[in-house]
Structure formats: C-alpha cells, structure tokens
Amino acid sequence: MAEKRRPRRWLRWLSLLAFVGAALLAKGYWNATRDPVIRTAAVEVADWPAGQPPLKLLLLSDIHVAGPDMPPERLVRIVADLNQLKPDLVLIAGDLVSEKRSATHIYSPAEVVAPLGKLDAPLGVVVAPGNHDHWFRPDALRGELEMRGIRVLQNEAVKLGPLLVGAIDDDYSGHDDLPATLAAMDRLGPGVPLLLTHSPDIVPDLPRPVVAILAGHTHCGQIRFPFIGALTYVSRYGDRFACGAIDDNGQRVFVGAGLGTSLLPLRYLTPPDAWLITLKPKDSHP
C-alpha cells in the first residue's frame, strides 16, 4: 500500500510547487503593473533667486513601453495621474522603449511617445536618452519627441526659468560627455544647476557639485530577494547608486525605480515609482 501512495505524494508536491510558482509570477506581474508610487523630497538651495517661488520637479525614468506590462494605454493613464501633481518641470531619465525578448508587442516610436506629449508642466519636459533609446530607432524617437514639444538634450543644457538643466547622454552605451554638458551649462550664465542622466554612474566623475542629479537605469534592482538583495543594479559601482534619495559625499542624487520593466515583466520588492522633488530656498518653511 505504501508503494502505491508514494506516486500520489510526489504528485501533490509537484502540484503545490506549480501553484506556488504560478502565484509568484502573478504577484511579480501585478507588482510591475501597479500604479507608480509617488516619492517626495525637498532640496533647499542656498543661492535660490530672491522672490522665486519653490519649483516642483517630476522625475520619470525607464518607462520601457512594450507589451505586455507597459502598453501605451497604461502610460496614458499614468500621465493623466501625474499631471494631477502639477509639476513645474518634468525630467525623463531615459529608456522610453523596450525591445526585450519577453515582449508581446513592440510599439512604433509614434505610439511610444504619443502619451508623453500629454505631460503638462509650465517649464516643459526634458528627456536625456537611455541605452534602450539608442538601441531602438533613436532618430525616430527624437523626431517624435520634438514634434510634441519635448526637449531632447544629449550632452547639452538649457535654461528654464531659474534652472540650468544639463542632460548627459547615456553612459551605459558610451554616448556620455560630461565635460561638454558642464561647458554648455557654464555658457548659460548663473542659475540653479541640475543634471539629468540615464545612468547614475557619472556621479563620481563630476568635478563640482550641482543642486541635484536625477537618474534612473538601475530599476532599484527590479527583482530583489529578501536578505539577499538584487541580482544586479547594472552599475559599475554596485549598490552605491542603487535606488532612491542618496547623499553621495554631499552630492544629492535621486535614482528612480522606473515605470516599466526590462528583460522580464516582473517586479519584486521594487514597485514602479516617480519622484516629485521640490526645490526651495534654504531655511524656508513649508
């Protein structure tokens, strides 16, 4: 009798493992497609222009438009919700697209960019390209963005109100030029300096501090395990710039988890997010 029951016992264990595996995959997909967490921070600026009200910056990164987890329809809903935050300036730290092998659909540049054209901010929207943007029809993406009034800066800078926004092209794919970006900022004259970059790995090479560096690329690990952490942050510096609000030897750095996913449409312990960062004069009160 014992010999006959043994196969049934193994079958029950296999069924249980299959159920647990399916539940974990479903939870990972739900995590990946949930509404982004809105994280907030305030940065006090010592040389804030007199009479200038505080400004709200919205940092987005790693949107990775692709099926199944980030179709354009989902991005339309996210953009509508983000507009309710009433940011003064939107900064997008690259990787608008995804051509991952697990994608169920790859969208055209027009389909990728159209929802972003609905972002509403008085000082506009600025994009610094990411590695996936360079790997997937970069000229077409740039054309679609500019057609909708979105600035694409590649080792360039622009003055927007009191802000000097320098945007560094992607470090991961070797398109970055930090000296050129800083020189472009210097030519703009005085202002509150910010740097937008896809990868935070440029931070140690910065010769002088800026008010804030805004980045993405790491996905905060995307798939993290309890007690173990993430398999990788895709950074030369390990977890130094892994995620969130960072004080790196006095330099303020914000690294977003991103809205979409790379490789697999799954997230564990790393919900999608966006950062709303308020710049205000030093020692002011909320």
TrEMBL record:
GO cellular component terms attached to this protein's record: membrane
Xref: InterPro entries: Calcineurin-like_PHP (IPR004843), Metallo-depent_PP-like (IPR029052), Metallophosphoesterase_sf (IPR051158)
A single GO molecular function term of this UniProt record: metal ion binding
Keyword Hydrolase attributed: yes
UniProt xrefs under SUPFAM superfamilies: Metallo-dependent phosphatases
Source species, domain of life: Bacteria
GO biological process assignments: lipid A biosynthetic process
Keywords carried by this UniProt record: Hydrolase, Metal-binding
Domain Calcineurin-like phosphoesterase: 56-220
Protein's name in the database: Calcineurin-like phosphoesterase domain-containing protein
Organism (species): Sphingopyxis italica
